[in-house]
Design brief:
- Residues 82-428 form the Solute-binding protein family domain.
- It is found in: Periplasm.
- Belongs to the bacterial solute-binding protein 5 family.
- Keywords: Signal, Transport.
- The longest helix is centred in the C-terminal third of the chain and has 18 residues, at 460-477.
- With 518 residues, the protein is of the alpha+beta class.
- A hairpin with a 4-residue loop joins strand 3 and strand 4.
- 32% of the residues lie in helices and 23% in strands.
- It folds into two domains: 2-30 and 50-189, Dipeptide-binding Protein, domain 1 (Alpha-Beta Complex); 276-487, Dipeptide-binding Protein, Domain 3 (Dipeptide-binding Protein, domain 3).
- The protein has a ten-stranded mixed beta sheet with strand order 9-10-11-2-12-17-13-16-14-15, sandwiched between helices.
Length: 518
């Protein structure tokens, strides 16, 4: 058996470093002041906190989730390894298919109930149940079953060795944070979440705000400084930025190039930035006409101008990418289809010859009603027109976009491949035939077989090489177009301290404090 364990003092230091992203933050935490409250502006409302009913969180939802619920493990992003959190230690069977976790004793949910192995097992069993149709299932489908062997011990049985298990048990997206089983059973978790986190839910006024307050019974209560956090829903980028400058809000997340450039020049604003994996994308629906035609998808891939989007929308604040693996692996060009209008026209001509049509049928792109969504849609509309393709734009709210994308009710949709410590599960889910996350309709047996081989690889370098191979095949297909790479920004007022750079694009305000000027 393999054992992984950290002494309590080391685990504490690692946890602080984990939450902060840097050791410097861990050291400065000792200077934190207790009390006060802050307002965090987020772009969109949360769809819900129930792992089934809520669907996906997105970056803004994950910001709120981190305050309320916690995952089984932490993650040290500097060392790129999982660390103890709600689980204190774990062992691994020799064949790497059974992981046994010992849970932290004395942890309470916000409703006063005890955190135990039944909560963990129930959470993952529910996600894995095909009848539940959880959007998270495809990402963790390598897990066969999760069993509570005693109140403080839980076993994860895998279908095969899976190197991504520990990073996925540390994620704060929808599958990672553990809810109270009683709250899920009572069907109240989606709108009134109950977790073990440092803040407990108070109220949610849809489209306006979500309020949380300090959890006095938190198992790491000495680390929590704020009494209250209000998450204000401000979809308009300019309004969010203006609210930060005026002091109406204290923290914002944004990817708007103009706001980022202005904020970096403003001495009254603190800029926090990180580079990571993942990418903003356009997804082309190959499951229905006319984009079920591979030639037309390739035409559109060459009609997309990532450089133009970077200059116009991102103002040079995001990297140009040919793959979503970030710094974990350099996949090179990976068959990326660069912006080339003449090449796009050639594929359009080939498409018309193949189909006998005289023109390309109009294509509808759904995008968010945000300024970013409108701008990126307009860029694509103009470049596609130059290639002889008409794109009609349909702005929808974030919740509608997500729902329609999962239902396959789109031709082109704006999307995001989320950052992650291991991009393998996402690539697998996007490429695997029959996966609920195969949003573009990949139906390539060779890619499918490669995805299976990558998933069971026990050597990380082999796994990464196969991920690059997968990306090359996916790029060649033209179904996923990169809009910009994984560089993430958050901004705070000077009075807010202790907010780390936005690892994975998510702002963590759980250990923040307020230092009012004297």
């Amino acid at each position: 058996m393999r054992t992984s364990r950290l002494p309590l003092k080391l685990a504490t230091a690692t946890a602080l470093s984990l939450l902060a992203g840097t050791a410097v933050f861990a050291e400065s935490h000792s200077m934190a002041k207790k009390g006060g409250e802050i307002t965090v502006a987020i772009e969109t409302d949360v769809r819900g906190f129930d792992t089934v009913k809520g669907g996906v969180l997105g970056q803004t939802g994950e910001i709120v989730m981190r305050a309320i619920q916690e995952p089984l493990l932490g993650f040290d992003n500097e060392k790129n390894e999982a660390t103890p959190w709600l689980a204190t230690e774990w062992t691994v069977s020799e064949d790497q298919t059974v992981y046994t976790f010992k849970l932290r004793e004395g942890v309470k949910f916000h409703d006063g109930s005890d955190f135990d192995a039944e909560d963990v097992a129930a959470h993952y069993t529910r996600i894995l149940d095909p009848e539940m149709k959880s959007a998270s299932r495809s990402f963790i489908a390598s897990i066969d079953k999760v069993v509570a062997t005693d109140p403080m011990t839980v076993e994860f049985h895998l279908k095969h060795p899976w190197l991504a298990l520990l990073p996925y048990l540390a994620t704060t997206s929808m599958s990672g944070p553990i809810p109270a089983k009683e709250s899920v059973d009572a069907d109240t978790q989606n709108r009134s979440p109950v977790g073990t986190g440092p803040f407990r839910f108070v109220e949610w006024a849809s489209g306006d705000r979500i309020v949380v307050e300090k959890n006095p019974d938190y198992w790491r209560a000495d680390e929590i400084n704020l009494d209250r956090i209000t998450f204000r829903i401000l979809p308009d980028t300019q309004t969010r930025f203006a609210s930060l400058k005026s002091g109406e809000v204290d923290v914002i997340w944004t990817d708007r190039g103009a706001s980022i450039v202005d904020a970096e020049k403003d001495k009254s604003i603190v800029t926090l930035a990180t580079d990571g994996a993942g990418a903003a994308t356009n997804m082309l629906n190959g499951k229905r006409e006319p984009l079920s035609n591979a030639t037309l998808r390739k035409a559109l891939a060459h009609a997309w101008n990532q450089d133009g989007a970077n200059k116009i929308t991102w103002k040079g604040t995001r990297p140009f990418v040919t793959h979503p693996l970030g710094t974990a692996k350099d996949c090179g060009e990976a068959n990326y289809r660069h912006f080339d209008i003449e090449k796009a026209k050639e594929y359009v001509a080939e498409y018309l010859k193949e189909t006998g049509k005289t023109e390309v049928p109009p294509i509808v792109m759904i995008h968010t009603t945000t300024e970013r969504g409108r701008e990126l849609g307009s860029i694509y509309q103009q470049t596609a027109k130059a290639a002889g393709i008409t794109i009609n734009l349909e702005p929808v709210d974030q919740s509608t976009l997500v729902a329609r994308t999962f239902k396959g009710d789109f031709d082109i949709t704006g999307w995001r491949i989320a950052d992650g410590a291991d991009m393998g599960p996402q690539l697998y889910a996007y490429a695997k035939i029959g996966s609920s996350y195969n949003l573009t309709g990949f139906n390539n047996p060779e890619l499918d077989a490669l995805a299976d081989k990558m998933r069971v690889a026990t050597d990380m370098e082999d796994r990464l090489n196969m991920q690059c191979e997968m990306v090359s095949m996916m790029n060649d297909d033209g179904s996923i177009e990169y809009v910009g790479g994984g560089r993430y920004y958050a901004f705070t007022t000077l009075r807010v301290k202790g907010v780390p750079p936005p690892y994975r694009g998510v702002v963590d305000v759980t250990r923040a404090w307020v230092d009012e000027p004297s």
